Amino acid sequence: MKIGLPQGLLYHRYQVLWQVFLRELGFEVISSPPTNPAILARGMADAISECCLPAKICLGHVQSLLGNCDYILLPRFDNTGPDREFCERCRGIYDVARHTYREAPLVDYNLQAKGGPGEKQAFLDLAGTLGQSHWASRRAYKAARAAQEDFTEQKIRDQEQLLHERGLKILLAGQPYLCHDPYITGPIRRLVKEEGGRILYSDYFPLAACRQASQDLSPRLYWTLNQEILGAILLNRRNLSGAILLTAYPCSANALANEMALRKIKDLPMIHLVLDGLEGEAGLETRIESFMDLLQGARN
Amino acid sequence: MKKKLQISFPHLGNYYIPIERLLKAIFPGHTILPPPPITVRTLELGSRYSPDFVCAPFKFNLGNYLEALEKGANLLLQTGTGCRFGYYGELQEQILRDLGWDFQFICFSRQEARPWLVYQTLHRLGSPLNPAQFLYQLGLTLAAIRLLDQLEYFLRYNIGFQTEPGSGERLHQELLMALKKVDSFGQLHQIKSHFTKAFYNLPLKRPEKYYRVGLVGDLYTLMEPFSNFYLEKELANKGIAVSRIMNISFLLFGKNTKKSLLSSADYLKYNPGANGADSVAQSHFYAAKGFDGVIHIKSFGCVPELNATPSLQSLSRDWKMPILHLSFDSHTSEAGIQTRLEAFTDMIELRRQRTEDGRQSGLGFAPQNIEAKTNYPNP
User: Fold this and answer.
1) Rounded to a whole number, what is the distance in Å from the CA of B261 to chain A's nearest CA?
2) Which of A17-21, A82-86, B194-198 has the least mean pLDDT?
3) What is the CATH number of the domain that holds B289?
4) What ipTM goes with this model?
5) Global pTM?
6) Do B281 and B171 belong together in one domain?
7) What is the pLDDT of residues B3-23, one digit of tens each?
8) Looking at the structure, do residues B375 and B238 belong to the same domain, yes or no?
9) Which residues of B touch A94 (CB under 8 A)?
């Protein structure tokens, strides 16, 4: 049986977990192709126009998998504990996709630590839906969790090293589905590198520490991804040259949380880029070039 | 001697009346300063200092605060739950402080909204009430809100058919004036019996065939008439019975997301946040009751309602009941909304004619054997 993973929303955060889990259970796993103009166009056509860019991209990915696999895994993310919630978009994406593509063979699990089953139970339930035995799925979950942790630790170690090297270090501060998406932020990463900068990602830091640190800046913030972004900036601002704050249009959480960051963090050069998937590269180039020039000037 | 407090809070429909009364009872000797009524200036002020694509309620609230501060308020109150609303307070306080205003900001959001913590905070601010008195005043306010909601629910459904234009509105104003002065349950009871009688005796002339429309959507846009260009009044003027389940009483006493998910049938599997599940459940309820249409209103970019929209579209297709989706923002033009509303009312009239013609041929009828299991009041 073939299971498809759409490369949207939190794919970049949980991909190892999903892939190892499903492979251990003996499924064939395919991913949708990396985001490209065709996927974006598809998503924009099918989604309601007011939806945020990542949601549109995610729907485009789901559409690209239709007909290519037996099931499509599209989980629902609620929270990972009290005051560690995902945004409303991640909570609703499963129902949105189910009613946008009513014929899509979607399977899901519900990541809801507070008021729900928790991650492990959610995975066991998922395996049950797919017809797997309890013990096999327990083993698979254990292996998958270990693989995912190895993967993130490796990334954190690499980035830790980079953080203490010399050079212009630019933090790409945004949700994983923005930072790692080749189509949305690919041009930004390329432009920064062309200007001699090195890219760091806000989600490749020890996340628990980041969430803790964000409480100093904004004690009432409850979106876990935004806590991680603000915490990553706060904890590492001494070692960074600058940060690029990313907001997808019209992201509900970032509209508020990034505004707070811009108002409160004064000792790190930052630019705020709003991405709607339609911006020309020329505009982006001007802004990033001038930002990098500024940082170079400050250094010399 | 502590500085004299001038307390203010954001507007939400007519609820400023019971809230103002409650605050007056809690803080005798201090000034309660409801912000000036919402005008275009309020929205302009609010949008000028708000982040780019935050939802409209944030802008309205901020505008209210700025106008209240101009009048001399020095203590602002905010609350917050669910979706983005829970984070409003912190950012609004920061924005106002960055603008250079000097004030106290008390935010009862999420965890801070528990009654005991609220009481402690109010006590610290200088309220002389003991817990029992506080509970009494709180209960009285909730009862007043409940009465207001019940009568407004009745009025909304019937005001389109009043024989003497303006009589319903006049009665409504009298009710609001009476609720301003109430200070005991006995008085409230008198008001209740007087006005219930008065409302039910309102001279009405309802034609045999009339159209019924349900309103669902996000709580602020539904409850603050300025933010939806007085949509309900507009519909009533067209002689349409309007039903709206969402109000403060519903949020406090009736809201049950699990039940809403159940009664939204297969249209939602998970809670989409805030009032998304309620919107679907209520639309399902209206569809089962045979309403002519539903209007789904929200502020621009409201994610819970956007999450519910595809489900509503499916529901509309399956039950063959038209649903109009309207989005309101600081840039929305009233003329555009009116055009769409006219097209919608024309459509439900046409549809009614067609279903009456097509009843024999079985066209355009929803399955009648499915009854939505809800505990909503009968319209």
Assistant:
1) 12
2) A82-86
3) 3.40.50.11900
4) 0.92
5) 0.92
6) no
7) 789 999 999 999 999 999 999
8) yes
9) 269-270
